[in-house]
């Protein structure tokens, strides 16, 4: 896309050069802060940071109950989340309502300024600037005065509208492509789930004679299979006071993994690990408070886990990968959910005494191995397809943000693109 014919220095570090005919103004000179709080009407639209999608400005739920009072906004206002600004939660109001929590309300003085200001404040360049002047370690926030005093580029009025219209059209096109890709990943994930659920309880032979399993939610199983309780397969294990062992974690998407293999685990390791439990290859590990969410699996590694985990060692000789797939299948996750209990959902607990009585299909070792190898192969293929689609989604989202930043700062000329 072409650039403007002539540029000048903006004297604003995060902006760099801007088109020669643009101006630089502080936000407070083109908009005002709306700060008077009041109690929303019962049926009023209420928006808080928690129900705003990062980087898109889309409101996921118009009736947040986050706070008792809020700032009344009107159509055309810009809502900007000043806490953890790197999350990029900015909204252009298309309706009247109340802003709750840390979302400030900025009202442009000119109607043509509203949508342009929204895109400008949503741009990576502006978000990164605000993040750089934020304060506080755990929950960094940007001071309202610093936001209002921020210098921003100001195009001509008709250009503001052209830029906003261009970005409305382009972001909607990109968002539609993202929606299509996300739906494709959902369908692939559904295919993956259905494949596992079918195979671990019905086997690989579609023509095999079936029999009732005796458990309604399991349904029929091959006639030559047995059923056993988990107590037949596992016993609880309590080996502590280990040292020099690597730390393991249990993920909903992967099962038992090495903790340092991922950088998105924010749970802290205790300074005192004397109560951490030893896990050996073949052990079954589940997070007793998150088992109902899928945090479980057969470990391929030796290491230690938090005392919050239940560690079980095998009592029988079986193919671990089969039971890894079986116990992580959707049907069993639902059963763990049913058996878990507690005061708060986030802390529902599955006791070993309840786990041990769960019934599982028990094919021969040969079939266990065949099923596990089949599922390893097929799920790997599906996972690769999902990863490819997710990569495309990420690239589209990055392009969306880049396009916004380039347009609102004048790095590209979109006047003839509308």
Concise overview:
The chain is an alpha+beta fold and 418 residues long. It contains ten helices and 24 strands.
What does this entry look like structurally?
- With 418 residues, this protein is α+β, with helices and mostly antiparallel strands.
- Among the domains are: 23-154, DNA methylase specificity domains (Adenine-n6-DNA-methyltransferase TaqI, Chain A, domain 2); 204-362, DNA methylase specificity domains (Adenine-n6-DNA-methyltransferase TaqI, Chain A, domain 2).
- Helices cover 34% and strands 21% of the residues.
- It contains 10 helices and 24 strands.
- It has helices spanning 27-30, 114-122, 124-132, 144-148, 157-202, 230-233, 320-327, 330-339, 352-355, 365-408; strands at residues 7-9, 17-19, 23-26, 31-34, 37-38, 46-47, 70-73, 78-81, 90-92, 97-99, 103-108, 151-154, 210-212, 220-222, 226-229, 234-236, 248-251, 255-258, 277-279, 284-287, 296-298, 303-305, 309-314, 359-362.
- The strands form 9 sheets. The protein has a 4-stranded antiparallel sheet with strand order 4-11-8-9. The protein has a 4-stranded mixed sheet with strand order 5-7-10-6, with no helix packed on it. It has a 4-stranded antiparallel sheet with strand order 16-23-20-21.
- A hairpin with an 8-residue loop joins strand 8 (78-81) and strand 9.
- Helix 2 (114-122) crosses helix 10, helix 5 (157-202) packs antiparallel against helix 10 and helix 7 (320-327) crosses helix 10 (365-408).
């Amino acid at each position: 896309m072409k650039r403007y014919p002539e540029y000048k220095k903006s004297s604003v570090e995060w902006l760099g050069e801007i088109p020669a005919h643009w101006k630089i103004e502080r936000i407070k000179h083109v908009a005002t802060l709306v700060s008077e709080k009041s109690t929303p009407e019962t049926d009023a639209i209420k928006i808080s940071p928690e129900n705003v999608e990062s980087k898109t400005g889309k409101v996921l739920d118009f009736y947040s109950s986050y706070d008792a009072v809020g700032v009344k906004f009107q159509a055309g206002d810009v809502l900007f989340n000043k806490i953890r600004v790197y999350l990029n939660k900015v909204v252009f109001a298309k309706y009247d309502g109340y802003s709750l929590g840390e979302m400030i309300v900025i009202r442009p003085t000119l109607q043509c300024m509203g949508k342009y200001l929204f895109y400008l404040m949503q741009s990576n360049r502006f978000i990164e600037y605000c993040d750089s002047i934020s304060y506080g370690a755990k929950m960094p926030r940007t001071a309202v005065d610093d936001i209002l005093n921020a210098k921003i580029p100001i195009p001509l009025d008709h250009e503001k509208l052209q830029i906003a219209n261009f970005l409305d059209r382009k972001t909607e096109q990109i968002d539609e492509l993202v929606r299509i890709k996300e739906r494709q990943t959902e369908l692939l994930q559904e295919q993956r789930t259905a494949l596992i659920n079918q195979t671990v309880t019905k086997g690989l032979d579609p023509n095999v004679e079936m029999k009732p399993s005796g458990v309604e939610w399991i349904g029929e199983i091959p006639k030559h299979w047995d059923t056993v309780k988990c107590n037949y397969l596992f016993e609880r294990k309590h080996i502590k006071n280990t040292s020099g062992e690597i730390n393991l974690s249990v993920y909903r998407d992967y099962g038992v993994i090495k903790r340092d293999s991922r950088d998105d685990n924010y749970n802290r390791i205790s300074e005192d690990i004397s109560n951490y439990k030893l896990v050996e290859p073949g052990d079954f590990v589940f997070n007793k408070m998150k088992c109902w969410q899928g945090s479980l699996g057969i470990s391929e590694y030796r290491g230690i886990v938090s005392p919050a985990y239940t560690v079980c060692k095998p009592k029988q000789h079986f193919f671990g990968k089969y039971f890894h797939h079986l116990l992580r299948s959707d049907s069993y996750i639902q059963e763990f959910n049913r058996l878990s209990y507690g005061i708060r959902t986030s802390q529902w607990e599955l006791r070993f005494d309840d786990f041990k009585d769960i019934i599982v299909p028990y094919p021969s070792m040969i079939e266990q191995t065949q099923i596990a190898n089949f599922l390893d192969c097929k799920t790997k293929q599906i996972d690769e397809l999902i990863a490819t689609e997710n990569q495309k989604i990420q690239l589209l989202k990055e392009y969306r943000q880049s396009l916004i930043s380039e347009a609102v700062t004048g790095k590209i000329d979109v006047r003839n693109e509308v």
